[in-house]
Automatic annotation (TrEMBL):
It is a multi-pass membrane protein. Residues 132-413 form the NADH:quinone oxidoreductase/Mrp antiporter transmembrane domain. Pfam families: Proton_antipo_M. The keyword Signal does not apply. This is Formate hydrogenlyase subunit 3/multisubunit Na+/H+ antiporter MnhD subunit. The chain crosses the membrane at residues 6-25, 32-58, 78-98, 110-128, 164-187, 207-228, 240-257, 269-288, 309-339, 345-362, 383-407, 427-453, 474-496, 527-548, 650-668. GO terms for cellular component: plasma membrane. It is found in: Cell membrane; Membrane.
Length: 669
């Protein structure tokens, strides 16, 4: 029994113990005990995943646990990466949840569903058979759905989000089930080892890849299957939002990698061009909606679509390069994708937990009603700023390194390829560059409007700092962001070995302080960049202090155009900050605005009040989903005419159905 097996078994046992404790313990002790056990399970999963990445593989078959197929488990380096990331996110979310759930979320059901959700996510990358994978996937969907609707009795929006999530996640499960069942049927067995050895025709492999890819893309929140994500993530409790946005969506990426590159052996180039195109569209579409969103958690949800799009650009490029014979570039693109998935998990955990602290302290997540939190919530403000820097992909944030690696793999592909490279790579680079620029504006808005200046609402004016357990969860996520930003060289050799094993190529990244890319002349040292930036900042501050000391200090009132002291109403709001961006991308976003001008009673020419409302609807949802929903609603209304309460009619239905079935069986036989 090695460390991988021991730690993995311990993590599942602790999750089960946490669920039982949540059901058995009194309300006062429930969050602390269940949270501590879930955090311990996450830490154990990190150890198991790290051991698997380091080469301690493990596999097992328990034939009696699941009827007919049994339970097949195995951990290789690829599964270990996703297992360790999920465990790390679970540690932060569970500790944070001890303080957060004491405010109305300490019920038995919610507290028990949380560790079961974590256990399901740990089982997905460890599954080594189709049956085990599908059971774990469905358990993950059901437990996350229970957590999304945990507050439906308080907010109707949570119930609506749950309906969208339930429909989308089970449609995704249906196509994954169909694809994996076909794969097992062609292979003649359920085990992944048998599937790898099977000879599957190109047409069948393509159909299986398209079916499973659509289901996994739905879980990852990829356009146009993303519509559940900006609803479910904001409405779930904040620690659940962190788990869904930083860990669960990764399972969609894992599924594409496992089926496409591992079980199906790579496939033709067009598979991966499709993945790359979907990733680029998701990255641009997600960040544009994030830029114009005034809801803090909804903004972060759209940002998840953007970052999963960036990860899929790397995955698609890796598969495309591998199919084209450029194994070294394929390994580099896959390293960039894996590192960006890890980085996204770190900073999105921090941002969602910080957003939860804001919601906990102010009672609102509307950026237009926030502001002035810097003085009242100094620790949360500093931690959100750190997460915003990472999400902006600016140095020295951790998001910068992975996006730089991704750009290097795309830019250096041009000299090697033909027409497809010449068309695809510039478009992909352009999508990443556009995404990075809009992401900076988005997170400047989120931080500047939400935390600086004066409070624009009563909740912001009376805000208070979060309790220690919530701060501890955020601090752990912040430490992960800092570690990944300053010392990615500690992690990258293992990711390079993992990617090289999947692609069949040597390690694409080496170096202890300076990163060196295999076969490419580019190098980078994140630690030295951070040191240079810190030195430059210290120098600027020192110079300002020296010059300021030479001049006498004067205090003067800010120039206000004669209108009196500045008030909160004169500040930029999230809506006004994003208005220019909305105009620039008007053809994509199509913002809707409504202006009500209310005249005074005495004269129609004197304006008493002007009311302005702006809304950016999801055009994909409006064009693709609303007509389908309207058709189903119409069919439902028409179906009510069939059920008029007459017993005679119902007996007739039964008679005609039975007769028709017998006739059909007779014809078939």
């Amino acid at each position: 029994m090695n460390l991988t097996q021991t730690a993995f078994g311990l993590s599942l046992t602790l999750c089960l113990a946490a669920a039982l404790a949540a059901l058995a313990l009194p309300r006062r002790a429930r969050p602390a005990v269940a949270g501590a056990l879930t955090a311990a399970a996450g830490a154990s999963a990190v150890a198991s995943g790290a051991a698997a990445v380091a080469g301690q593989g493990w596999s097992a078959w328990y034939p009696d646990l699941l009827p007919l197929l049994g339970v097949r488990l195995a951990l290789d380096p690829l599964g270990g990466v996703f297992l360790a990331v999920t465990g790390a996110v679970a540690v932060c979310a569970a500790i944070y949840g001890i303080g957060y759930t004491r405010h109305g979320l300490a019920g038995r059901g919610v507290q028990a569903a949380m560790p079961l959700f974590v256990a399901a996510m740990l089982l997905v990358p460890a599954a080594a058979g189709v049956g085990t994978f599908l059971v774990a996937w469905e358990l993950m969907a059901i437990t996350s759905l229970l957590l999304v609707v945990a507050e439906h009795h308080r907010r109707a929006a949570a119930g609506e989000a749950g309906q969208w999530y339930a429909v989308m996640t089970h449609l995704g499960f249906a196509v994954i089930l169909a694809g994996l069942a076909a794969l097992a049927a062609h292979a003649g067995g359920d085990a992944f080892d048998e599937i790898r050895q099977a000879a599957i025709s190109p047409v069948a492999a393509s159909l299986i890849f398209l079916a499973t890819g659509a289901g996994f893309a739905s879980k990852a929140g990829i356009v146009p299957l993303h519509v559940w994500l900006p609803r479910a993530h904001p409405e779930a409790p904040s620690q659940v939002s962190a788990l869904m946005s930083a860990a669960m969506v990764n399972m969609g990426v894992y599924g594409i990698l496992r089926v496409g590159l591992d079980l199906l052996g790579g496939g033709p180039a067009w598979w991966w061009l499709l993945v790359l195109g979907a990733g680029a569209a998701s990255a641009v579409y997600g960040i544009l909606h994030a830029a114009v969103s005034a809801d803090l958690k909804r903004l972060l949800g759209h940002s998840t679509t953007e970052n999963m799009g960036l990860v899929l650009i790397g995955v698609g490029a890796a598969g495309f390069f591998a199919a084209s014979g450029s194994r070294a570039l394929a390994a580099l693109a896959l390293v960039a994708a894996l590192l960006h998935a890890i980085n996204h998990s770190a900073f999105k955990t921090l941002l969602f937990l910080a957003a939860g602290s804001v919601l906990h302290a102010t009672g609102t997540r509307d950026l237009d009603a926030l502001g002035g939190l810097r003085e009242r919530m100094p620790y949360t403000t500093a931690l959100f700023a750190l997460g915003a820097l990472a999400a902006s992909a600016l140095p020295p944030g951790n998001g910068f390194v992975s996006e730089w690696l991704l750009l290097q793999s795309l830019v250096n592909a041009l000299p090697e390829g033909g027409v497809r490279h010449a068309v695809t790579m510039p478009l992909a680079v352009g999508a990443i560059a556009l995404t990075a620029g809009v992401a900076i504006a988005t997170f400047v808005k989120a931080f500047g409007v939400g935390f600086l200046a004066k409070p624009r609402g009563e909740g912001a004016a009376t805000a208070h700092e979060s309790p220690p357990t919530m701060l501890a969860g955020m601090l752990l996520a912040a430490a992960a962001c800092v570690g990944l930003a300053l010392a990615p060289t500690l992690l990258l050799p293992y990711l390079a070995e993992t990617a090289g094993g999947v692609i069949g190529a040597p390690a694409a990244v080496t170096g202890e302080v300076t990163l060196r890319l295999g076969g490419i002349a580019s190098t980078i040292s994140p630690l030295l960049i951070a040191c240079w930036l810190a030195a430059a900042l210290v120098l600027v501050l020192a110079l300002l202090r020296v010059f300021a000391a030479r001049r006498a200090r004067r205090e003067a009132r800010l120039w206000d155009c004669g209108a009196g002291p500045m008030t909160a109403r004169m500040e930029y709001t999230a809506t006004s900050f994003a208005e220019p961006l909305g105009r620039v991308f008007d053809n994509v976003l199509r913002p809707e605005s409504d202006i009500d001008v209310i005249p005074a009673k005495e004269s129609a020419y004197i304006v008493e009040r002007v009311r302005y409302r702006a809304r950016v609807a999801d055009r994909i949802e409006r064009r693709a989903y609303e007509p389908v929903l309207a058709a189903f609603a119409a069919a439902g209304r028409a179906a009510t005419r069939l059920a008029n309460g007459s017993v005679h009619r119902y007996l007739a239905y039964g008679f005609y159905t039975l007769t028709g079935t017998l006739i059909l069986l007779a014809v078939i036989a």
